TrEMBL record:
GO terms for cellular component: cytoplasm. Belongs to the peroxiredoxin family. BCP/PrxQ subfamily. Transmembrane segments: none annotated. PANTHER family: AHPC_TSA FAMILY PROTEIN, THIOREDOXIN-DEPENDENT PEROXIDE REDUCTASE. Pfam families: AhpC-TSA (PF00578). One of its GO terms (biological process) is cell redox homeostasis. Thiol-specific peroxidase that catalyzes the reduction of hydrogen peroxide and organic hydroperoxides to water and alcohols, respectively. Plays a role in cell protection against oxidative stress by detoxifying peroxides and as sensor of hydrogen peroxide-mediated signaling events. This is thioredoxin-dependent peroxiredoxin. Its EC number is 1.11.1.24. SUPFAM superfamilies: Thioredoxin-like (SSF52833). CDD domains: PRX_BCP. Monomer. NCBIfam families: PRK09437.1.
C-alpha cells in the first residue's frame, strides 16, 4: 500500500466528469463555469450511518451554502442506482456522484492507507475540498469525522450556522 497524494491550498483541483444518481454527467469544469466555489466531499459508502449523517448535514446546510456561493457534490464508489436509493431514502438534495473506479478519489488523495479500528487498511479516506472559482484548492481536509463535519466546515468558511 502506498501513501495517497495529498492536495493542499493553492494546488490545482483535479478535473473530473462523473455520473450522478440520475445518470447525468457532471464535471468540475462545468460547475466552476457557473461562477461558484465547489465543495467536493468524499465518503465511504451510501446508506451507512456516518455517511447518512454527513449527507443529511450537507442537505440541511445546502440553502445557506448556495446562498454563500457554494455548490456541493458528494463522491463515493457507489453505483448510480445505489445513490438514487440513498437520495430517495434520506431526502437528499445535494448532488451525488459515482466514482466506481476510484480514479477521482485517488486524484484527490481520498483513497489509500488508513487506520480502521487500529488496523492499517486501504480504503476511502473521508475528505472534503473547497475548490475556488479559479480551479485552485482553497481548503483540503482529510480524515474528517462524519458527525459535526459540516458545522466545522461552515465555521472554517466563516459561515453562520443554519437558522
Amino acid at each position: 500500500m502506498s501513501d495517497p497524494v495529498r492536495l493542499a491550498p493553492g494546488d490545482s483541483a483535479p478535473d473530473f466528469t462523473l455520473v450522478t444518481d440520475d445518470e447525468r454527467e457532471v464535471s468540475l469544469t462545468a460547475l466552476l463555469a457557473e461562477g461558484r466555489k465547489v465543495i467536493v466531499y468524499f465518503y465511504p459508502a451510501a446508506m451507512t450511518p456516518g455517511c447518512t449523517k454527513q449527507a443529511c448535514d450537507f442537505t440541511d446546510s445546502l440553502d445557506a451554502l448556495q446562498a454563500a456561493g457554494y455548490t456541493v457534490v458528494g463522491v463515493s464508489k457507489d453505483t448510480p442506482a445505489k445513490l438514487a436509493k440513498f437520495r430517495e431514502r434520506d431526502g437528499l438534495t445535494i448532488t451525488l456522484l459515482s466514482d466506481p473506479e476510484l480514479g477521482v478519489h485517488r486524484a484527490y488523495g481520498a483513497y489509500g492507507e488508513k487506520k480502521l479500528y487500529g488496523k492499517l487498511v486501504e480504503g476511502v479516506i473521508r475528505s472534503t475540498f473547497v475548490v475556488g472559482t479559479d480551479g485552485a484548492i482553497e481548503l483540503a481536509q482529510y480524515n474528517v469525522k462524519a458527525t459535526g463535519h459540516v458545522a466545522k466546515l461552515r465555521k472554517d468558511l466563516g459561515l453562520a450556522a443554519p437558522a
